[in-house]
Amino acid sequence: MEFDVIVLGTGPGGEDAAGRLAEAGLRVAAVEANLVGGECPYWGCIPSKMMIRAADLLTEARRVPGVAGDSSVSPDWGQVAGRIRTEATDDWNDEVAAKRLTGKGVQLFRGQGKITARGEVTVNGQVLRAARGIVVATGSEPAVPPIEGLRRTPFWNNHDAIEAEQAPESLIVLGGGAIGAELAQVFSRFGTAVTVLESADRLLPPEEPEAGELLRKVFEAEGITVRTGAAARRVDHDGSVFTVETGEGPAVRAQRLLVATGRRSDLSALGVGAFGLDESARSIETDGRMRAAEGLWALGDVTGKGAFTHVSMYQANIVVHDILGEPVHDAEYHAVPRVTFTDPEIGSVGLSQAQAEQRGLRVRTALTRIADSSRGWIHKAGNEGFIKLVAADGVLVGATSAGPAGGEVLSMLTLAVHARIPVRRLGEMLYAFPTFHRAVEATLREL
Ligand SMILES: Cc1cc2nc3c(=O)[nH]c(=O)nc-3n(C[C@H](O)[C@H](O)[C@H](O)COP(=O)(O)OP(=O)(O)OC[C@H]3O[C@@H](n4cnc5c(N)ncnc54)[C@H](O)[C@@H]3O)c2cc1C
Ligand SMILES: NC(=O)c1ccc[n+]([C@@H]2O[C@H](COP(=O)([O-])OP(=O)(O)OC[C@H]3O[C@@H](n4cnc5c(N)ncnc54)[C@H](O)[C@@H]3O)[C@@H](O)[C@H]2O)c1
Questions:
Q1: Complex ipTM, two decimals?
Q2: In testing the pocket of ligand 1, which one of 7, 10, 35, 138 has its CB within 8 Å of the most ligand atoms?
Q3: I need a surface site. Which of 119, 135, 180, 235 has the fewest CB within 10 A?
Q4: Is 238 helix (H, G, I), strand (E, B) or coil?
């Protein structure tokens, strides 16, 4: 079957690119092995943020005493699980999403697609040919670390955690990255006894050390056990209880085990070797137009530029313009924003202090605490957080905004890093009183 473009994988970026290319008049085939929409709407961003919204509501209600009276809350996981089934995922049915895509003129092929030659994808024995090229948008899947015994146990990955119909009594979370931190706090707030095991020396290891320290403090205050420097060595399951040994400290036991130790993309399963690409690589390398080879584009998690929906959509926009021969700015990654939606939210953009120093930049940093700002003091309960700025050569190269609405406050810092606005000019701006983002002004003064 002949097409102009074949899009392999219909996660956020693949779906967007396929739909827009078809609307522009190209003959587009999309190949999807699972659900149209990918990880984000069914097992990622959307349902996890629904869980977080519910968990945050419980905690806000628990903060009433001492500020506004008394409160008592009775968590009901059934309401969260119900919303995820009915409102978010349609019980993991993608009929609506598939109709939306085919309604734009895309021909959808269900099944695992593989590149079998340049310009050729085979799915379920059917050969599809693309005159202009192939877009690889196949995302990532949970990585399973090589821990003795693990694969023999019924551990959870993010799919199982998102589909949970009950909050477990106890839960071990392996990995204190974005997924581990968000879901550890969610289940804890619904009454689960949670232990986080993180092999690095802090939670959210790529972020500023102050972010990991802050989360540890908040987690421990909420009753979550946090063990860092704790790489799992062995996992057992006796039919009802998991036991995880870490080499240091006592073994941990719990009803469930969530493995959230990162993601992987299997390039050999995609057949990108047909284009001369290294199939043992962790990700597909692209140029600024997201081209990986003549007639091959890649976007999303598979490019290794940040496993975030906004990165996938940003790259999809570049792919669409490039394929249509329209002008578009090359992809830039100096200001990739990311938000871990714990409470407090950890928002960050650009380089951490350590990353900037590793690049040999002459770095200046400053940090102020949200609790010391007027808004933080007014807020009283749940006012933990900080702003940290990393500057070099008179511009911000990185920033962290941790706190209530930390992800929203991040927006102005993303703009500053993206547009390389001089620090001096940022300091001349007006900051509304009393807002959380006014802490940025105080931090600029420190800087
Ligand atoms: C629990 C969790 C929470 C998250 N929260 C956030 C968040 O708050 N914000 C954020 O920005 N990001 C978040 N993410 C990350 C986000 O979900 C991913 O970065 C995003 O979905 C990646 O999009 P993608 O376009 O690369 O493809 P994916 O969403 O990974 O989809 C790829 C699709 O390709 C299909 N596919 C793979 N191989 C083939 C093949 N050979 N043939 C056919 N189809 C194939 C898959 O079935 C899948 O549907 C979260 C992830 C998880 C797991
Ligand atoms: N809010 C968001 O934007 C959001 C939320 C969830 C996920 N995501 C995306 O999905 C990606 C995957 O999330 P993730 O949390 O699985 O990966 P991650 O890479 O963010 O974190 C994995 C953590 O597991 C630790 N680890 C690895 N092996 C271990 C072991 N054997 N024992 C103990 N700890 C171990 C690592 O040190 C790391 O801190 C994220 O990097 C992020 O890009 C984004």
A1: 0.99
A2: 138
A3: 119
A4: coil
